[in-house]
Design brief:
This protein is of the alpha/beta class. It is found in: Peroxisome.
Length: 645
């Protein structure tokens, strides 16, 4: 790590070089502290430009210090020292100025940035709030509404938007160093703006704060850090600067030791290492150039779209020309919907779609580096696909199945060179959902396994290695969760109350409304298949509804009734009548107890999965539930929430 000082005439250039992301560890804080003192004492220096080496500006705190007692110089004191420097500082921003990095920039008298830079205060995503003036200086600089949006969401803004906000003073189009030095020289000829700490706080009435609190509470889904950050912003509008800073710092230190912060730190570190497992770090993955997808239905189209988003040419293969056209139409619709939502331009959508080739001739896959099967969940259909792939694909081409429930070992039977076979379980819709369960068979080579994780990184997915069992990790826990919800129903708890309890816990939907959205018949058909294979599968309450024609929203009724195309379900008298004989008691639980019971069941199944070696770490189970099933991130996953981590 180094903080170096060079001089360009009357302008000093302070360069931070602390790879990989110039994190604000103690040594860097000390280096900047000393630089302020050194330059204040240099009469030849009229202004200072702060710039960073490498790929980014200061990208935040040093994660190695997370959970530890901060060591001096403390960041709030450093920001104050920079702001109070005798010579005005200019922050020259490229890459990301995040968290403490942005707070350092706020201490500078000016901020300039390249157009590709981003600026943000993501502390709430780690369960804390900004602790070095983020909630105090930011609203003084850009106003309350914009500051609240940035701080309580943790989402960064691009430099162009930051310029419109007034957070940066100029966009740099040429060389960052040269243009920042030129900006500093020109600024010396003008009247200097007031330090942010001396600017008046923006004011708002009580109705404004009530509206903001309701909006933040709704978006936070039970997380407390965003609401505490909002309160710190509110206090910054009411208190003198020093008192507002004291409130922010006290709240930050209090939040740092909270269970929410501990949960989010744990998930942060798990996600950070997910795409490069320690056991595979010395293994070089295969370079993938062209990827085939078998099946153009909902799942196959989503996988193809995700691959195109990452820049891979895709060969979509179906059984006949009509199916190829349907598959291509499904992919085109995904891109068209992205245009409607403003996520893609029309030109980008056209470019994505142009990279998909449709065929019903398996021979067109001869040069593919990876082929992903995403056909109907029936083993005979899948085996037929891999028999063809074994005949036409190169011997070193990786072959993957997207099965959700079927044993990959059974699918792989007879595949030549089985070391290149692997399970890649995407979650629907595959172009949106982040989870990717990676399921090797016993013969899968480490190179192929490493390639699976490498592909996940390029697709911006969250990969988790899973062993082989029915439903792998996620769907196996989901099965027990649904059974536990039905058990609560049998004991007299109301369907709507159970769903409301899980929404109150932080999930987007409860177990019954989620089934109605996805379709009750999906799990029903899986159970029926197991029964047909000779397994003893007890009848579920969901089976009763499906057999009565209630398959969910798509049939106008599942656990709830849906009328006039509405997606909001209403309590159903028909369901009450159908299930009445199966309600054996009337002992409803409190909302908190319902949530504790269901989360406890998830964790209990997770523990069995760990004991069986299907997962190797409790945090892997929590990653699966957070990224694949909407478990509230701030609670850390069912294993953490149930003290099984």
């Amino acid at each position: 790590m180094s903080v170096t000082i060079t001089r360009e005439g009357e302008i000093a250039l302070v360069t931070v070089d602390n790879p990989p992301v110039n994190a604000l560890g103690q040594a860097l804080r000390q280096g900047l502290w000393d630089a302020v003192s050194t330059l204040d004492a240099d009469d030849q220096v009229k202004a200072v430009v702060l710039i960073c080496a490498g790929r980014t500006f200061i990208a935040g705190a040093d994660v190695r210090e997370f959970g530890q007692t901060p060591q001096p110089p403390h960041l709030p004191d450093l920001v104050t020292k920079i702001e109070a420097a005798k010579k005005p500082w200019v922050a020259a921003i490229h890459g990301s100025a995040l968290g403490g990095g942005l707070e350092v920039a706020l201490g500078c008298r000016f901020r300039v940035a390249v157009e590709s830079a981003s600026l943000g205060l993501p502390e709430v995503t780690l369960g804390v709030i900004p602790g070095a003036s983020g909630t105090v200086r930011t609203p003084r600089l850009i106003g309350l509404e914009k500051a609240i949006a940035m701080i309580t969401s943790g989402k960064p803004v691009r430099a162009k938007q930051a310029l419109a906000y007034g957070m940066v003073d100029a966009l740099i189009e040429g060389d960052l160093k040269d243009d920042a030095l030129a900006f500093a020289r020109n600024a010396m000829l003008q009247s200097l703006p007031q330090p942010i700490s001396l600017r008046p706080a923006h004011q708002a009435d009580e109705a404004f704060w009530q509206t903001q609190q309701e909006n933040v509470r709704k978006a936070a889904r039970g997380a407390s850090a965003p609401l505490m950050a909002l309160e710190s912003v509110r206090q910054s509008s009411l208190l003198p600067f020093d008192e507002a800073m004291a409130f922010e710092r006290h709240t930050f230190l209090e939040r740092r030791d909270s269970r929410e912060a501990a949960a989010l730190r744990r998930i942060f570190f798990a996600e950070r290492g997910a795409t490069r497992p320690v056991a595979l770090q010395d293994i070089t993955p295969v370079t993938l150039k062209t990827i085939g997808v078998i099946g153009g239905g909902t799942m196959g189209a989503g996988i193809a779209a995700a691959l195109r988003e990452a820049g891979y040419p895709v060969i979509l293969t179906e059984q006949d020309e009509a199916a190829v056209e349907r598959g291509l139409a499904n992919i085109r619709k995904i891109f068209d919907d992205s245009v409607k939502r403003g996520r893609l331009s029309k030109a980008q959508a056209q470019e994505r779609f142009a990279g998909v080739t449709g065929t019903c001739n398996y021979a067109d896959l001869a040069d593919a580096d990876l082929v992903i099967e995403a056909v109907f969940e029936e083993i005979s259909v899948k085996r037929a696909v891999f028999e063809k792939l074994g005949q036409v694909c190169r011997s070193d081409a990786i072959l993957a199945t997207n099965t959700s429930y079927i044993d990959p070992r059974a699918i792989a039977e007879g595949v030549p060179h089985p070391e290149r076979f692997i399970g890649l379980h995407f979650f629907s819709p595959a172009h949106i959902m982040k989870l990717l369960e990676i399921v090797p068979v016993p013969q899968t080579s480490d190179t192929v396994l490493a390639t699976g994780f490498s592909l996940a990184a390029k697709l911006k997915k969250m990969p988790v290695r899973a062993g082989i069992c029915e439903g792998f990790i996620g769907n196996r826990i989901l099965k027990r969760y649904r059974a536990a919800a039905e058990n609560l129903l049998r004991k007299g708890n109301n369907i709507a109350d159970i769903d409301a309890s899980m929404r109150g816990y932080g999930l987007a939907m409860g177990p019954f409304e989620a089934q109605d959205l996805g379709g009750l018949d999906i799990a029903y058909l899986q159970r029926e298949g197991a029964r047909a294979a000779g397994q003893t599968i007890p009848q579920t309450l969901g089976d009763i509804l499906v057999e009565a024609g209630r398959k969910g929203q798509k049939t106008g009724g599942g656990w709830y009734d849906y009328t006039d195309g509405s997606r909001k379900g209403q309590p159903s008298a028909e369901v009450t009548a159908l299930l009445k004989a199966h309600v054996t008691s009337s002992t409803p639980l409190s909302s908190q107890k319902i949530a504790e019971t269901l989360v406890g069941e998830m964790a209990a199944e997770g523990q069995v999965i760990l004991d069986e070696g299907i997962a190797t770490d409790a945090v892997d189970i929590d990653l699966v539930k957070i990224h694949g099933y909407g478990f509230p991130r701030w609670r850390g996953g069912p294993m953490f929430a149930s003290d099984r981590a």
